Amino acid sequence: MNPTGSAKKPLVLLVSLLAAAVLLAGCGSLTSYAAKVNGRRITQNELDRELNAVLGNKAYLDQIDQSFGSQAQASARGAGEGTLNSVFVARLLERRIAFELVHQEVKKKDLEVTPKDLEAAKAEILASFDNDQRILNAFPQSYRDELVRFTAEVSVLERSFTEAPTDDAAVKAFYEANKGTFETVCLRGIIVPERPQAERLKARVVGGADFAALAKTESKDNQGPDGGTAAKGGDLGCAARSALGEFDAPTSGLKPGQVSDPVQTPAGFVVFQLTDRKVKSLEEAVPEIRQRLEQQSTEGLRTFVNESFVKAKITVNPRYGEFVQSGPEVGLKAPTEVNATPPAQSVGP
User: Fold this and answer.
1) What is the domain partition of the chain in residue ranges?
2) Do strands 268-279 and 314-316 pair parallel, antiparallel, or not at all (unpaired)?
3) pTM (2 decimals)?
């Protein structure tokens, strides 16, 4: 399992490993919890079992360290023998908090985790280890089972958010509401400093003058080694209509060859000529629309976790840092220094 892997893997949704080589907090805590999430305790023993499982898997730690490449001080390992980086530990605890929030939501929604979900979770976990069964097998069986349960619940909750309709009616509704996205316009432009000059140029084009030829001689966008757009006959290229912004209104009603009224911009006044307009039909747009609908819905899980990190009642044992619930960096902020012994539970399966 590579905690720096793709965000598409639910198991590693929130794990982002940073560097700060310090000692790992372990057993012997003055309090019996590592964190509290909406009243439910993540006990010290739960976290210690995970830390022991990680410490006992050299291949896994090597995989994490390799993923950092040459980044300075980037390692899951701590400064001393048998220790872990406190930032890495904070990320593991933060992930466990996220898993607990997911578990609570699964129960709240009365979602079922099926045997098929568990099998899919096993495959996903193995894939997160680059399909290296040896790394996975080096974890205790109890920890592997826990990972499977966590991952299955994340997938089930994610599916509950991603089951947005993608049937024909939903596709058509999306197409009608976003037609500008499926319409491409190609434009030329002539930029001049004064409105009267722009109006005269428009009149000349309407009267039959060649727009490209006028752009080459009259447009003030003629700077730079390539002569700007003037050297290209005013060619501005093509873009989705939805990307035109303030220039959509003055060009939306044009037919190929027609020119717009002068449009004021910070650079001067622009006269546009539409050279081409292409509109994807609904049938042509179906694959793209279905993909967009699916992509939109996959943000549901990430939004849930982000919002829960802000709104849930979360308390963290100070030895693991402070859980920040406002500002630009919401999440568990690791301590700068931790002086404690590593956990002592068995690491065997």
Assistant:
1) 10-163+298-333, 179-282
2) unpaired
3) 0.56
